[in-house]
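Deliverable D2.4 — example input (structure tokens):
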């Protein structure tokens, strides 16, 4: 979901977002999965986006699944 719609909604490229995540994880010693979730929340706050269940569902609508997944 992140690369398909969430990251672009923040005005970032996937490369920029994942670099922020990697840098934050290295700086804080936080495990990478927790770091990316934290960066997701902070990026939304910076853009004035409320990260609600409805928002995440909307972002998930654009996921392109591999053949056979659905």
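Example output (designed residues):
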């Amino acid at each position: 979901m992140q690369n398909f719609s969430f990251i672009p909604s923040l005005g970032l490229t996937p490369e920029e977002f994942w670099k922020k995540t990697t840098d934050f994880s290295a700086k804080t010693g936080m495990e990478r999965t927790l770091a990316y979730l934290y960066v997701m929340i902070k990026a939304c706050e910076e853009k004035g986006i409320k990260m609600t269940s409805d928002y995440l569902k909307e972002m998930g609508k654009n996921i392109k699944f591999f053949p056979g997944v659905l």
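Residues 26 and 32 are 9 Å apart (CA to CA).
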